[in-house]
Amino acid sequence: MKMPSIGEIFEDSCRRILECWTALNLAAENNWGGENGMEKRKVLIQGVVDYCLSSKCPSASASLEEQVYADEIRDALVHDLEHEFHLLLDDDSETQVASEIARLHTACVKGDLDYVLALQQRLFKFSTSESKPLESPLEILEAHSQDASDAELLDNYTDRTDYAETENVRDQL
C-alpha cells in the first residue's frame, strides 16, 4: 500500500480537527446559515485545508514548505462562520482550533509523526461511534514492536482506519 504524503497526512488531520469543533457542527446541523448547513460545513473545512496546502504550495501533494499562522486561520474561520452561518463566537474556540491547525502544520513540516499520532489519538477520543476507526491509534501502535519505524507505524495506522464523516463530536482537543 502506498505511503501517504505529508500533505495527505496534514489534510486528514486538519479535517478531523475541524470535524470535532462543536460550534461548527451545531451551526451546520441546525442550518443556522440557511439550508444546506452540512454542505457549507464541508466547503468551510475544504477551504481551510486548501488555504494551508494549495494556496501556500501549488501541488495537491503539497510539501508544506511555507508557514501558516494561527491568526490568519482564525480570521478566516471567523469570517466564514459569520458569513455562512451568521455565527459570532464568544468562547474563543476559533483561536483554539486555529492554533491546533497551525501546530499540526508545523509538526508536518518538521516530520514530527509522534505529534501527529498523538493528535489523532486525542481526536479519536471525541469521535462518535459512527466515525471511529476500526482500532484506535493506541491499539495499533501497541500491536507493533518497539523498533518499528515511524513510517511503518503511520502506514499501518492509515491503512487500517476507516473513518466515516464525523457529525456529532466535541470540540475538546
UniProtKB/TrEMBL annotation:
Belongs to the TSR2 family. This is Pre-rRNA-processing protein TSR2. One of its GO terms (biological process) is rRNA processing. It comes from Babesia duncani. InterPro entries: Pre-rRNA_process_TSR2 (IPR019398). It comes from the Eukaryota. Keywords: rRNA processing.
